[in-house]
Amino acid sequence: MLRWILGGRESQSAVEKNTVLFIGEEQPKNSYTELQVLKGHFDIVRFLVQIDDFRFASAGDDGLVLVWNVQTGERLQELRGHSQQVTAMTAYSWSSGSATHTALITASSDRTLSLWDPETGNRVQTVSDLQSSAKCLLVLDRLDLWISGGNELCVWNRDFHLLCKTDHHSDAGITAMVELPKNCVAAAVDKDIVIYRLCVTSSKMDTSIAEIRRLTDHHDSIRALITVSDQMFASGSHTEIKLGSQKQSEMSVQHLASDGECIVAAVGSGLYLYNVSSRSVVAYRKAAHDSSVLHTMLLPDGQLMSCSADGSVRMWELQDLPLPAEPASAGFFGMWTFGRASKHASQQAKKVPEVPGLRTLELTGDLIGHSGAVQMFVNFGDAGLVTCSADHLVIVWKNGERESRARSLALFHKLEQNQGL
């Protein structure tokens, strides 16, 4: 196992002043100039899940699951069945012959798990006798199994048959899970990361699960757990940010995202970009938003997006600095390799890395439309960006120029069909 803590000296130079940026109305690099507001929820919308290239589902504290068409904004299905808030949601796809079927799995505070058909809106399967509500869901596509995590970890097959489960965990329960090689799963349980291994038989009915390792390096509750690559995952917690021998104010690693080469960490109201191969912070913005950053995403060509409890969605671009700067602390998060430990690398990790090529995150777009905390987003590429918020709204942000061309082309074809040209 290998772990790095990001640390160093705070820069007082050209990276930034500790104030939130304001970009104004002129945003030439921001293509999201149109928005479509989707209404249907009656409480905080916390989850968005992409079903396919043109459909997605939203869910939150009202217990509703709504299925939408991202291109038209049409509400396709309304999935009712939970009596309390939805606590987790994921898509579950499997192949049958030449066809691929995609369903939705939801967990709720009413201590039920449900399998939904987004085509018909029917609840296909449900389990209602859980000892506690599930806080996270993980689909193991290769094994055609899925896992729910709460006060216990449960392994299920596609027919919602419980195959095995672990013993009762602490009251904090399992808050996040990621898949690892060799039929293993990493689960965040309060301050610990527990590694489980599944023993799967050909019939799968005799599947068992056992704890094989427990990582106890975090000092506070783990808030984020993600896969970085096939052999690596990262975790983040709520803790004090340490600068040398001094202690700064407490911050939380609210979210982590990775493209395999870099990791972006949402630390308090700031953003920190970490390069995996160099094991160092390559860019940061201490005050990226007015409030805590809740979700992040890395995009191609050195761009990333973030959303915040302040109601904003922001676009950032990685740019070179005019002057050299010093390394910065990115809070407390560990990066782990799944395999044999490297003693030499562990010794290097204790040193403060010197980063001569530290860059900056330049604000290129500010999407203002929500009046409450933006919980997360899903990127549909050319079809747009979808966000959800505490204001009960889902918003689809679209490329204004592309949409204008599409409308003009549609009008031209309509006139041509009606012999108007």
Automatic annotation (TrEMBL):
Pfam families in the cross-refs: Beta-prop_WDR41, WD40
GO annotation (BP), single: regulation of autophagy
Organism of derivation: Megalops atlanticus (Tarpon)
PANTHER family reported in the protein's UniProt record: WD REPEAT-CONTAINING PROTEIN 41 (PTHR22805:SF2), WDR41-RELATED (PTHR22805)
WD repeats: 38-78, 79-126, 286-319
Gene Ontology CC annotation, any one: lysosomal membrane
Keyword terms: Repeat, WD repeat
Sections of the chain in a coiled coil: none
InterPro entries named among the record's database cross-references: WD40/YVTN_repeat-like_dom_sf, WD40_PAC1, WD40_repeat_CS, WD40_repeat_dom_sf, WD40_rpt, WDR41
Residues spanning the membrane: none
Source domain of life: Eukaryota
Annotated SMART domains: WD40 (SM00320)
Name listed for the protein in its UniProt record: WD repeat domain 41
